[in-house]
Here is the input.
Amino acid sequence: LVAIALVAVTGTAAAQQPPALTGSWSGYWVSDKNNHTGPLHGRFRQIDDDTYRVAFRDRLAKDVPFWYTTKLHVTGDTDGTVRLAASQRLPLLGEYRTSAIATATNFDATFTARSDSGRFVLTRRR
Here is the structure.
């Protein structure tokens, strides 16, 4: 009985742990406004229990490099999934908001700005 109780407690504790997102991710972005899309890379670094600094990079229109750095704040976590959000003012875009759901291997975010909205879809690079 003690062994069964320990397995049940250990399994429950492990299931409740939010995933660690630190590391390299890759995938794509897509705009809802004009359906433009392209590859996307992100490097996640955990600042504290509730904050990740994320540097996104790649190219627009195959020739224009872009970098976007933000702090994503953990807004909740359940069963191996973490919810994150960010909001900041950016030149030309106005208020840029991001909300995301992530697991240990997948990151799916939506973004909204003054004149655009869309998604970032990433998977963890091995």
